Amino acid sequence: MRIPPFSSPGLLLAGAVTLTALALWLLLPRSSSTRAARGVGYVFGTVALVAFIMSGRRMGCIGDEVVFSIVSIVAVVSGAATILTRSPVYSAIWFALSLAGVSGVLLVLGAQFLGVATIVVYAGAILVMFLFVLMLAQPSGLAPYDRVSNEPFLSAVSGAVLLGLLSLVIGRMSLNENFSESSAFAGFVANNPALLERQLLQDDHVARLGSQMFGRHLVSVEVAGVLLLVSLIGSIAIVSRNTESQSKTLLRGGLRDE
Amino acid sequence: MNEASLLNNALLVGAMLFSLGLVGMLTRRNLIVMFLSAELMLQGISVSLAAWSRFHDDWGGHILVIFVLTVAACEAAIALVYVLGVFGRTGILDVAAWQSLGNDSMEKQVDRELPSVDTLSPQWPRLTPAGVQPEIDQNELLEREHI
Amino acid sequence: MNCSNESTSESFVPFYFPFFVMSFMPFFSTEMSIETLQLLVPLVPFIGAVATIILGRVLGSKAHIPAIASIAIAAAAALVLLAVEVERVREGTTVESAARPDESIVTLWQWAGVESDPVDHNANQVATRPFSIDVTLRLDPLTATMLSLVTCVGLLVAIYSIGYMHDDPGYPRFFALVAMFVFSMTMLVAASNFLIVYVFWEAVGACSYLLIGFWFQKPDAARAAKKAFLVNRIGDFGFAVALFLLFVTYGTLDFHDSLSPNGTILPGILGKTRLMDESGIIGGAIGTAVCLLLLLAACGKSAQLPLHVWLPDAMEGPTPASALIHAATMVTAGVYLITRTAPLFVACPGALVVVSIVGASTAMVAALIATVQNDLKRVLAYSTISQLGYMFASLGTGLALGFTAAIFHLMTHAFFKALLFLGAGSVMHSMGGVIDMRRFGGLRKVMPITAITFLCGSLALAGVAPFAGFFSKDEILTALRTKGWPDAAHHSSHESHAMSGLIAPRMHLTSSVESVTNVDAFPASLEALNTPFVWQILWWMSLITAGLTAFYTFRAFFMTFTGPTRVPHEAGHHAHESPPTMTGPLVLLAIASGVSGIWIFGTQSLSLFLASTPSLAAPSVAGTAVPHVFHLDLAVQGTLASLLGISIAAIAHLGRRSDGPHIERFLGPVGTLFENKFYIDLIYVFVVVRPLEFIARLLAFFDSSVLDGLVDAVGRVPFSLGRVLRSLQSGLLQRYAVAGVVGVLALVLALVWQLRG
Fold it and tell me: C449-464 pLDDT, tens per residue?
């Protein structure tokens, strides 16, 4: 266990949080936003990101560290871009990139199925749906209200404070003596000698996951299926009602035109 | 690989995604971007769950992430349908258009100066002129504005 | 001495009673007992009133039918009761050749009752006596007389009202109120319990209030009603305190004796047991206080100085109501009350002399004011006050003659004052509501019946023989002279000695019980007034008042009915004699005014009859009875005074235009004093109204600024807080979300801070 160099973790964290808040505030869409302010925001954001990376732990293997850093930077930066960009279409595309980063993180964490499912379900289905809706609702692409944000300062500060608090808790937790890998894992194994073998990181990871889902969590899966069905029927019902009224409106307008 | 460090770093990534999603949820006024922010928050949660699952070598986190995915899909479907409905009524995706939740006696908040869209008009690629300029149908130009 | 007639009626033979009562006899006597009749008298008008209220809209212009029918039945029942009572008294007197108390009591139900401790029962101790308020009706000569008077005058007035009120929008309401008044008044005189009397004392006051304010759209009428009610409250307050004192002193509020559950007799305040006992009635400071408080009550109801101010204003009500309530019946309730409680007064000579002083001064002051009034009804109103003062002066003598003379005058006055009021109403009716005597004149040609009957009433009021007023006034003067010149008649000096002999041991007893001397100083100082000199002054005042009465009465008569005929333009072209429903009662009352006096005086029936009333048959009262003598000198003096007044009135007004020069021109500043009613209203304004107004303003200021300010401040705090907090409710969804997130962060921060160790 090693504490990052040249700084006490608390100070680093406080600086990172402050810079995050400032960067978010400067970069959030605003009517009086200038190029210089945005530049300062980019700088602050970059510095904050570096600070957060520095507050991370060494994971032993340099390859792992590099891969994890790259995917997590992709996830976080494109996530930030999602909320900071003005055009909702760009937001959606940045979100897709962020999903890719998240999927990478999940892969690094050994969750193969989740990583792929995230790409497939989110980027392939949900995000496409978002884009469809955007196309339907906001075909012109830009709207005035996309260019101003609501309570930017307070929101940025509260988001940064939340981040700081979470980082503080996470850091404190992993600094705890009892919370080392050896002790935790040793205790785990001591309690369950049959589980000496690792469950997750196996070649038949997906098969095991499947047996878990359709074994122990079968009822939950069924419930989730019902939930999907209900939401499907519900959205169809709502859409049909809306389109009915809309078509009526259209019909009336058309008649008036003629 | 140091499991505790991996957990720490993954949780940090999850926290950052969650916080960014929160800020987006609170600040952006476009309903669709708000939902994107919500999805971002869910992503943060998913990362954290997967990290804990790895650390404890337990399937629970994975299962939960799968259900989160399911619920997110449902939520997105329903919510987007509602967004469409809202748009059908008001013609606007601004969350501030729904101020009737407030006290009736209060004046509705109206944006003072909304920036005009013209400041950021789309830039179409310009081709180098070669030969006679082709005739462009005026209607086609009008259509382009809306793409 | 078993003298109760409380059993049901034996067969009775009407002896000399008018025939029309006899015609009812078979109808009643076979089926109905006396108790039923006693109950019938108040009950039927009550039913009539309720029926009129319920059916008023349906009946419309026939709304008088239930009221008049019920009052007629009540009048018939009252006359039957009078006949029964007369018969009883006649039998009693022939057997024992002396007046004996006669009463019959009907207990209807127990209104309120508290059981006493049966073990430690002591009839003389107040605390252990059972407390019970029974609704009881009594019948004795006084009650029978009053019942007949109230119902008969009420009947005549109600019949008269058919014509007078015929096109009034409140026609049913008027008759309901009249019937309700008759109910209340009959209950007042028939009740045998001070508390019940008090209840109906208030009830007649309420009816009076409603009738004065009958035309409540008129601000004057509403104000007059309010004034009458408020002034009466003062007297009622006195009555209430008197009741408390009586209950504390005697332990009961019943008039009559009653049987306790274990068979002993519980003496009532005016029951035979107590009246026959020499020390039964308590005098001294307590007794005097009770008497003075009762006098205050009587002053309020009977409009005596200084509470007389409401009566002239009460003329804002309809004229029949003025005639019925404010001249003939209700205002005599005070006289009735003092007569009923005569033994209490006789035990306190100090209080008695106060009664006379109040009465005589009221009579004189009111007469003086009446001489300069130009409003016909106001002349009559002040005349009523003056005549009531006469009655009070007579009551104050404390002689049996005085009490019977007061009731005698009450009766004759009821006849002729009702007559005069109804005559005035008749004039007013045909003059289109104008009542100012300066605006019309010579009406004898326009309305001859009214003029003649009004003349009868005026002669009776002025006390010209042989009209009724002469005889009753003569008796009052006789009573006063007996007190003023005790040596003139040897028997009266003897009686006064006997009376002082009766009172002295009682005084001694009380003073030994209450050893506080300054308590006794107060009745003693009042008794110091009880000298022949004071009574002589009172007698002279009454004689002068008789002259003044004749003057203002005939001034009004001459101004209205003689001189050149003039009719105000409000009357239009239909100045005419009133319809038969109005002139009929006038004629009947005129006959009554003419003959009732000489008949009653000649037969002495009334005084003999009333002497059997338990209150007046008490030894302390009955002992002062004098043999009936017609004093020629007194009659001459009274007649001379009347004729003098009539002559002056004739000189000033006979045959002249009524808007010509007036007597008050010759009076100068004194006339101004009279015209302004001795400034009594003004004194009230400065002594009572203004200070009260000042206090009220002060309290209102306190209320509106301090209390309301406090309340407003309490209300303003959440209001301003709300105005601040309302800005949070912007309806902007994300603002709510930000607030929520900030709150959650604060909580998490606090948690982390707590777990930092």
Answer: 888 888 888 888 888 8
Task: Find, among C471, C751, C756, C456, the residue nearest to C634 by Cα.
Answer: C471
List subunits contacting chain B, requiring 3 or more Cβ pairs under 8 Å.
A, C
pLDDT tens digits for range C232-256: 888 899 999 999 888 888 877 888 8
Give a yes or no: residue B116 inside a domain: no
Cα(C450)–Cα(C420) distance, integer angstroms: 9
Question: Testing the interface with B: which of C719, C725, C726, C734 to mutate, by most B Cβ within 10 A?
Answer: C734
pLDDT tens for residues B83-136? 888 787 777 778 877 776 666 666 666 666 565 555 555 667 777 767 776 777
Task: Write down which chains contact chain C via at least 3 CB pairs under 8 A.
Answer: A, B
Residue at B136 is within a domain: no
Task: With H, G, I as helix, E, B as strand and everything else as coil, classify residue C4.
Answer: coil
C736 CB neighbours in chain A (<8 A) are none
Gap between the Cα atoms of C585 and C419, Å rounded: 8
B102–C738 CB contact, under 8 Å? no
* More confident site: A33 or C297: C297
**Which pTM does this prediction carry?**
0.61
Is A142 in the same domain as A209? no
C732 to chain B: which residues are within 8 Å by CB? 95-96, 99, 102, 109
Chains B–C, number of C-beta pairs less than 8 Å apart: 40
Contact list in C for residue B22 (CB cut-off 8 A) is 741
Q: Length of chain A, please?
A: 258
Structural domain including A150 reads: 1-176
Report the residue of chain A nearest C740, measured CA to CA: A158
Q: How far is CA C195 from CA C191, C204, C234, C290, in A?
A: 9, 14, 17, 15
**Is A112 near chain C, with CB under 8 Å?**
no
Domain assignment of residue A101, yes or no: yes
Instruction: Give the pLDDT band (50/70/90) at residue C577.
Output: confident
Assess whether A147 and A233 both reside in one domain.
Answer: no
CATH of the domain at A51: 1.20.120.1200
* Number of independent structural domains in chain B: 1
- Tell whether A87 and A150 lie within a shared domain: yes
Choose, out of B103, B107, B108, B110, the residue to mutate when testing the contact with C (most C CBs < 10 Å): B103
Q: For residue A44, is it within any domain? A: yes
Chain B residues 68-107 with a CB less than 8 Å from chain C: 95-96, 98-103, 105-106
**CA A182/CA B4 separation, integer angstroms:** 9
- Phi, psi dihedral angles at C8 (to 5 degrees): -65, 165
3-state secondary structure of C138: strand
